[in-house]
Amino acid sequence: MEIIMAFVCGFLFMAAIYLILSRSLLRIIIGTGLLSHGAHLLILTMGSFKGSAPPVLSDGVTDYVDPIPQALILTAIVISFGVTAFFLVLAYRAYQELQTDDMTLMKGSEDHE
Amino acid sequence: MKTNDVILQFTAKLVFFIIFFYAVHIFFAGHYTPGGGFVGGLVTASAIVLLVIAFDIKTVQSIIPINYLSLVAVGLIIAGGTAAFSMFMNEPFFTHYFDYFYLPLIGKTSLHTAALFDLGVYLVVVGVTMTIIQTIGEDE
Amino acid sequence: MNNFLLLPIIIPFFFGMILMFGQKKLAYQRITTLLGLLMAIIGALGLVYKVHADGPQTVTFGSWPAPFGITMVSDMVSALLVTTTLILAFFIVWYGFESIGKERERFFYYPGVMFIITGVNGAFTTGDIFNLFVFFEVLLMASYLLIVLGGEKAQLRESIKYILVNVISSAFFVITVAFLYSVVGTLSMADIALKITEINQPGIITVIAVLFLMVFGMKAAIFPLYFWLPSAYSAPPIPVLALFGALLTKVGVYAIMRTYTLFFTHDLAFTHELLLILSVITIIAGCIGALAHFDVKQIIIYNIVIAVGVILFGVAQMNEVALQGAMFYLVHDMIIKAALFMLIGIVIYISGTTNLRKMGGLMKTYPALGWFYLIAALGLAGVPPLSGFVGKLLIVQGGFQADNIWSSIFILASSLVVLLSVMRIFIYAFWGEQGQISNDVNKTTYNRLFFPTMILVFISILYGVGTEWITTLMGDAAKILVDPSIYTDAVMKGGE
């Protein structure tokens, strides 16, 4: 199971890097989304897959999975949700203001000597 | 081009309530089972977004006249206030309290201050999501 | 258990929330912000006193036992940094009344400042590695808001890069925490320190140490990862720039300092040697940038990079003298960078340009500004008895003790470059022929800008002259950094 997850994470990171290196702003944002998904999956994998029951309080359950990675992922998902949303709004504003979503046209600064 | 969206608008009105009550269900289910304020908030926001799609932002704003940024602030105050409450009881920050109560109609219920914290989270999520959607959608 | 140490985090948080209402009422916003910061400063000063008297204070959230819950730890290191942060924020906000612009003040500038303070203080105080990530995100979210606030073209363009860099570094942070968790099985920093010595797997821990260096180095702007800093920091207005320059990189520096003294101490020959080499190259890169630019903002921004290198050089020595020096220099740099940014903000306001070549002759019309700039510049370079001197002296002394003779001499030599780079501003802007002068310079505005700046420069002079009084506090801080068992004992036994 770990080896499959390692491949899935690797694939997600690969796709994320490909998208982040592209020129279009929207693709970059999707790339950062994939990057954080890969990271979340990695936390899950790193917490190991021992245990069968969900870590929710009920009688007679002794063989439950480690709840900490899940708590971490939940926190990380909330944060990446917020950041992605903010990034999208910003990208939209930048597109309106600068009339482009091409990153190569956004480099440098005007008053550069 | 004027589109005829009678069916969409009619269904949206009905489905909005179904989704909204499902969100409330998820919110309370989060007490002991998967669910909670974050998911509930997202589902509620998606219900409002459905209305925005069926009608438009101005109409929805007049149906639900809420300043979503204030909603975020209120949510943060509720969540932070719940966490800070235990400071006045001379317990560590974020200590929760719970007890069992006999309520009319429902019977024996456990009431937990974590639900208040979750309510704060719920309001923040609805507020943030709707603020973002309004910001992007406003100038179309 | 002591909730008192949370005050410097919670007070800005609650005031931030209150400030989200009534965006249009400027007087209310300004007064509430100052009031909140003042209350937090009083709390922080009380905290320093308490930590000095009773040793490190801890509180574990939700009454959980110590290694399982999220612990907040306030030792002398974090108490001093928290106090400095709040005092600087107070002056920067005060300075911002005249220069930030009413547009921004009405659009969540003050809540943004309050949330950034919450995040910075939380990151300084937390004793849980994942909670550190959460507080990093809090301060980053607030910084995203502040960096785009106003929505000028340059700001939008630079903030996109800034956010992208930080999103990627956050993802790396999460990945690194995942690796660390899988190896040691705990997130409490004190517990990690204990477990790392128990499990005895130096190879993988070294990998994680380097990954952490990468993550925090991105925030702290060390050598290969500082590329985003100069352009991102040049976009926002001066008060925001002062806030960022004084606080944000220092959070990364603090995180490196904490992790590299508390738990990555198993293989000093590799990890701390790497840190030493990187810090030296960071100084070189910063020096080149600071000398090459003719833009006043950029010169000071590159000086941030140099200072980061100097502090990390002190951390890399891993002996008490150098760590005490690093603490001295860290606090000094926060104060003096804020003061310098505020001073050049006034220079830019008067001359209406950021280009040094167009400035000149301000000494005739604004002599007070010139003298205060000179004091701040000498303090930055570490001329005795001003504030930078003691820190650098101790760092170099520690370097000699650790037998890093040449790199220590190099640190001394870099002070000259720092002095040259800031003196260049003095020579170009204050001496010589009358240069460009902005047409709408208002004398009251100038005075209102100058007053908080002047007090901050006085504080930095006091910090340098009054070293004797602070030495005991800094000694406490250095002791904790050298001997992690004080920290771990405080956390593990603090829950009782």
TrEMBL record, chain A:
The keyword Cell wall biogenesis/degradation does not apply. Gene3D superfamilies: 1.10.287.3510. It is a multi-pass membrane protein. It is found in: Cell membrane. Coiled coil: none annotated. The chain crosses the membrane at residues 5-21, 28-49, 69-92. InterPro entries: CPA3_antiporter_subunitC, NUOK/Mnh_C1-like. One of its GO terms (cellular component) is plasma membrane. NCBIfam families: PRK08600.1 (NF006372), PRK12660.1 (NF009303). Belongs to the CPA3 antiporters (TC 2.A.63) subunit C family. This is Na(+)/H(+) antiporter subunit C.
UniProtKB/TrEMBL annotation, chain B:
It holds the Pfam family MnhB. The keyword Methyltransferase does not apply. It is found in: Cell membrane. GO terms for cellular component: plasma membrane. It is a multi-pass membrane protein. The chain crosses the membrane at residues 12-32, 38-57, 69-89, 109-133. Belongs to the CPA3 antiporters (TC 2.A.63) subunit B family. This is Na(+)/H(+) antiporter subunit B. It comes from Lysinibacillus antri.
TrEMBL record, chain C:
GO terms for biological process: ATP synthesis coupled electron transport. The chain crosses the membrane at residues 6-22, 34-52, 72-95, 107-124, 130-150, 162-184, 204-228, 240-257, 269-292, 299-316, 328-350, 371-393, 405-428, 449-466. Its main location: membrane. It is a multi-pass membrane protein. It is found in: Cell membrane; Membrane. Pfam families: Proton_antipo_M (PF00361). It comes from the Bacteria. Residues 128-414 form the NADH:quinone oxidoreductase/Mrp antiporter transmembrane domain. GO terms for cellular component: plasma membrane. GO terms for molecular function: antiporter activity; NADH dehydrogenase (ubiquinone) activity. Keywords: Antiport, Cell membrane, Membrane, Transmembrane, Transmembrane helix, Transport. Belongs to the CPA3 antiporters (TC 2.A.63) subunit D family. This is Na+/H+ antiporter subunit D.
